[in-house]
Design a protein that fits this description.
Elements: E1 3-9, H1 16-29, H2 37-54, E2 62-69, E3 72-80, H3 107-115, E4 118-124, E5 127-135
Antiparallel strand pairs: 1-2, 2-3, 3-5, 4-5
Length: 137
């Protein structure tokens, strides 16, 4: 079963409840097991928040696309008019160190990478798209 939906959201953390409602509606319409909601919500919250806070040059709405593909869910966040940032290249947080010895930042991406089953990234002409995959099997 292939289905997809996309919607743009204002570039602000206050948009997150609407983003979650969009995801939950897609889960219902695409008959995706609710057990997958927590990791998907976490990953999208981390990505969306990072785009709002750190994307240099970004002023446009952020586009969220959900696609149910055979055996998996693909969630893409696209930001426009920004510099590239590929989270796959972000260094892992040093979770082996005590809190006082760690450099702040990076823990959310570290956890995100372990909650999803794949990450893809594309950048062209100021358009930055991060896609996460969650296996539905």
């Amino acid at each position: 079963m292939m289905s997809s939906q996309q919607r743009s959201f204002p570039r602000q953390v206050a948009s997150l409840p609407a983003v979650f409602d969009f995801i939950d509606g897609f889960f219902e319409s695409a008959s995706i097991d609710g057990d997958h909601r927590v990791p998907v919500h976490f990953a999208v919250e981390e990505l969306f928040t990072n785009l709002v806070k750190y994307s240099r040059g970004g002023t446009h709405d952020i586009e969220v696309e959900l696609r149910r593909e055979p055996g998996r869910l693909a969630v893409s966040l696209t930001d426009f008019g920004v510099e590239p940032f590929d989270i796959r290249r972000a260094p892992d947080a040093r979770v082996d160190l005590g809190a006082r010895d760690r450099t702040p930042g990076g823990l959310g991406i570290h956890i995100l990478k372990r909650m999803v089953d794949g990450i893809d990234y594309e950048y062209a002409d100021g358009r930055s798209t991060t896609t996460i995959f969650k296996d539905l099997g």
